[in-house]
């Protein structure tokens, strides 16, 4: 396990704020994704018959198209006003929309308005998620010592597996204490409503964190860009493309569990107990957390790009054995498959904050990191569960899903060879006008 000795009190406060905030954001985001497979198909889209599940998963993906919009807005304001203000705003947006989802009546009560309201609230979640990650990642990395940016940057990353762990844990608990009928009627709403408590806690922590010292330097020198988005795409568009493709390869694979596909496949096709499947995913979330921290730690030793490449190779090698073990219908094999699946996933996720932060100059860093992340999420995770469900349905085999994920992984692996590692490079505003230099010429 990576050691965190030597981290100052201020550093601990920063990484805690980044981690707790992303945990809450993704808890909110994931309970929707999981319920899309377990609940929403029957409660909100049943009128569509056999296509209800596919459309339910599609609503998970719809919000991804609004992530770039959230990234543009938060990126612009984050590069102009600071990282801290955006972290508070995005947390509020996610929390309010999540609580309201828990209050939306189903189709039987208000007809067509039910799925419409559900989708609109999911859009707000997408706007929030698009702006959240960039601020949390940059706050952690820009506060970090140069030699430990990978590890510090991994802390907002582990908010995702922790959020997945909490989302599956709360749903597993609710499932265990309710009958199937009660769960579908009202039990699934409890995790959404509990988000109120988490949001209050997150706001208290984030409000006490100091602004990024790198951004403060830019503000003091009055070096902020008036149009960071224009500057980003004029001078650094290759970086945006490379960052998006790297994340797309990780995100497509990750959304097999975070998007609810594995949970749905294991319960509906393999007829495994819902609570058991959720617990299996929780165990894999712990493995993902550990491998993500390990990815950040390793990135400080061998470099960000090399860590990505190791992770993508492991991801690719395990792709088809993963589905073979899942198909055995054994709970033990499901757990083993998911845990080993999480190793490559973590190694291609842990270094991301440091890599993105070192890619861009300070004046466009929030915009660049957030937009790369958001576009990668659209290309990779947006419709990964929907594509997986459609491939499985049309071909009759889950191995078609493995083929799709293998292709996405190869795209990420190939992209990594065109990305220059800038481990330990200065994050100072002195780089404000530096040309894009982290994508090698093809």
TrEMBL record:
<keyword id="KW-0769">Symport</keyword>
<protein>
    <recommendedName>
        <fullName>Putative proline/betaine transporter</fullName>
    </recommendedName>
</protein>
<dbReference type="InterPro" id="IPR005829">
    <property type="entry name" value="Sugar_transporter_CS"/>
</dbReference>
<dbReference type="InterPro" id="IPR020846">
    <property type="entry name" value="MFS_dom"/>
</dbReference>
<keyword id="KW-0813">Transport</keyword>
<dbReference type="GO" id="GO:0005886">
    <property type="term" value="C:plasma membrane"/>
</dbReference>
<feature type="transmembrane region" description="Helical">
    <location>
        <begin position="110"/>
        <end position="130"/>
    </location>
</feature>
<keyword id="KW-1133">Transmembrane helix</keyword>
<keyword id="KW-1003">Cell membrane</keyword>
<dbReference type="InterPro" id="IPR011701">
    <property type="entry name" value="MFS"/>
</dbReference>
<feature type="transmembrane region" description="Helical">
    <location>
        <begin position="370"/>
        <end position="391"/>
    </location>
</feature>
<feature type="transmembrane region" description="Helical">
    <location>
        <begin position="305"/>
        <end position="325"/>
    </location>
</feature>
<feature type="transmembrane region" description="Helical">
    <location>
        <begin position="277"/>
        <end position="298"/>
    </location>
</feature>
<dbReference type="GO" id="GO:0015293">
    <property type="term" value="F:symporter activity"/>
</dbReference>
<keyword id="KW-0812">Transmembrane</keyword>
<comment type="similarity">
    <text>Belongs to the major facilitator superfamily. Metabolite:H+ Symporter (MHS) family (TC 2.A.1.6) family.</text>
</comment>
<feature type="transmembrane region" description="Helical">
    <location>
        <begin position="331"/>
        <end position="349"/>
    </location>
</feature>
<comment type="function">
    <text>May be a proton symporter involved in the uptake of osmolytes such as proline and glycine betaine.</text>
</comment>
<feature type="transmembrane region" description="Helical">
    <location>
        <begin position="52"/>
        <end position="73"/>
    </location>
</feature>
<feature type="domain" description="Major facilitator superfamily (MFS) profile">
    <location>
        <begin position="14"/>
        <end position="424"/>
    </location>
</feature>
<dbReference type="Pfam" id="PF07690">
    <property type="entry name" value="MFS_1"/>
</dbReference>
<dbReference type="InterPro" id="IPR036259">
    <property type="entry name" value="MFS_trans_sf"/>
</dbReference>
<feature type="transmembrane region" description="Helical">
    <location>
        <begin position="237"/>
        <end position="257"/>
    </location>
</feature>
<feature type="transmembrane region" description="Helical">
    <location>
        <begin position="186"/>
        <end position="205"/>
    </location>
</feature>
<feature type="transmembrane region" description="Helical">
    <location>
        <begin position="151"/>
        <end position="174"/>
    </location>
</feature>
<feature type="transmembrane region" description="Helical">
    <location>
        <begin position="85"/>
        <end position="104"/>
    </location>
</feature>
<feature type="transmembrane region" description="Helical">
    <location>
        <begin position="397"/>
        <end position="419"/>
    </location>
</feature>
<keyword id="KW-0472">Membrane</keyword>
<feature type="transmembrane region" description="Helical">
    <location>
        <begin position="29"/>
        <end position="46"/>
    </location>
</feature>
């Amino acid at each position: 396990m990576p050691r965190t000795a030597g981290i100052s009190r201020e550093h601990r406060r920063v990484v805690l704020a980044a981690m707790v905030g992303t945990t809450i954001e993704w808890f909110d985001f994931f309970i929707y994704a999981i319920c899309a497979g377990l609940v929403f198909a029957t409660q909100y889209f049943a009128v569509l018959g056999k296509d209800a599940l596919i459309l339910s998963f599609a609503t998970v993906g719809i919000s991804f198209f609004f992530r770039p919009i959230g990234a543009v807005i938060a990126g612009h304001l984050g590069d102009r006003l600071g990282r801290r203000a955006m972290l508070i705003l995005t947390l509020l947006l996610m929390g309010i929309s999540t609580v309201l989802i828990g209050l939306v009546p189903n189709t039987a009560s208000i007809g067509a308005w039910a799925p419409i309201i559900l989708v609109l609230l999911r859009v707000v979640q997408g706007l929030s998620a698009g702006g959240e990650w960039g601020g949390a990642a940059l706050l952690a990395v820009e506060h970090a010592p140069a030699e430990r940016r990978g590890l510090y940057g991994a802390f907002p990353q582990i908010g995702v597996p922790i959020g997945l762990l909490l989302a599956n844990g709360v749903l597993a608990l609710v499932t265990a204490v309710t009958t199937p009928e009660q769960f579908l009627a009202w039990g699934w709403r409890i995790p959404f409503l509990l988000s109120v408590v988490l949001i209050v806690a997150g706001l208290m922590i984030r409000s006490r964190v100091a602004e990024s010292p790198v951004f403060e330097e830019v503000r003091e020198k009055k070096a902020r860009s008036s149009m960071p988005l224009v500057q980003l795409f004029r001078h650094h568009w290759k970086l945006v493309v490379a960052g998006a493709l790297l994340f797309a390869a990780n995100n497509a694979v990750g959304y097999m569990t975070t998007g609810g596909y594995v949970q749905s496949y294991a319960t509906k096709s393999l007829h495994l107990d819902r609570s058991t499947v959720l617990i299996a995913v929780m165990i894999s979330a712990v493995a993902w957390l550990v491998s993500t921290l390990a990815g950040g730690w390793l990135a400080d030793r061998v470099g960000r790009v090399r860590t990505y490449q190791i992770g993508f190779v492991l991801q690719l090698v395990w792709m088809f054995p993963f589905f073979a073990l899942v198909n055995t219908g054994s709970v033990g094999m499901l757990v083993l498959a998911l845990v080993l699946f999480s190793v490559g996933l973590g190694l291609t996720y842990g270094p991301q904050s440091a890599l993105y932060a070192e890619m861009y100059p300070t004046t466009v860093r929030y915009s660049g990191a957030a937009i790369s992340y958001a576009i990668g999420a659209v290309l990779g995770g947006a419709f990964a569960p929907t594509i997986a469900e459609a491939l499985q349905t049309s071909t009759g085999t889950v191995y078609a899903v493995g083929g799709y994920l293998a292709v996405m992984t190869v795209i990420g692996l190939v992209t990594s060879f065109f990305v220059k590692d800038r481990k330990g490079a200065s994050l100072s505003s002195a780089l404000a006008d530096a040309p894009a230099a982290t994508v090698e010429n093809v």
